[in-house]
Design a protein that fits this description.
mainly alpha; 116 residues; single chain
C-alpha cells in the first residue's frame, strides 16, 4: 500500500488503470482495476464514476460499442452532480471515441468541451 494508506493505494490503482488505458496497455489497465475492485471497500461516488470511466475507455479501445454508451452514462451523471473538471475529460473522451463512427457528433462533443 502506498504509505500504508488504503485510500491512497486505491487512488493509485485508479490512476494507474487510467494511465495504462490511455497508453493502450489494456491488460495493465484491467489488472489495476481488478486490484481496485478486490479491495472490497465501499467507494466514494466520484471514485465509482472514475472506475466506470476507465472501464469504458478500455472497452472503447477494444472496439466494444458498449464503451461509448458507458462514457455517455458517466457523462450524464457527472453533469448531474456538477463535477465540471471530470465532466470535461469525460466529454473529450466521448468525442474521441465517436470520431470513427460519428464524426459530426464527435465534432459537436469537442465544441461542447470547449464551452465548458
Amino acid at each position: 500500500m502506498a504509505a500504508d494508506c488504503r485510500r491512497c493505494s486505491r487512488e493509485l490503482a485508479l490512476k494507474t488503470a487510467e494511465s495504462s488505458a490511455r497508453l493502450g496497455r489494456l491488460e495493465e489497465a484491467e489488472k489495476a482495476l481488478q486490484a481496485w475492485d478486490e479491495d472490497g471497500r465501499p467507494a466514494l461516488l466520484n471514485d465509482m464514476l472514475w472506475r466506470r470511466h476507465v472501464a469504458a475507455l478500455i472497452a472503447v479501445a477494444r472496439g466494444d460499442p458498449a464503451g461509448i454508451a458507458e462514457i455517455e452514462a458517466v457523462l450524464a451523471e457527472r453533469d448531474r452532480l456538477g463535477l465540471v473538471g471530470a465532466l470535461l475529460w469525460t466529454r473529450l473522451d466521448l468525442a474521441g471515441a465517436l470520431v470513427g463512427s460519428d464524426r459530426r457528433r464527435a465534432a459537436e462533443e469537442f465544441r461542447k468541451a470547449g464551452d465548458e
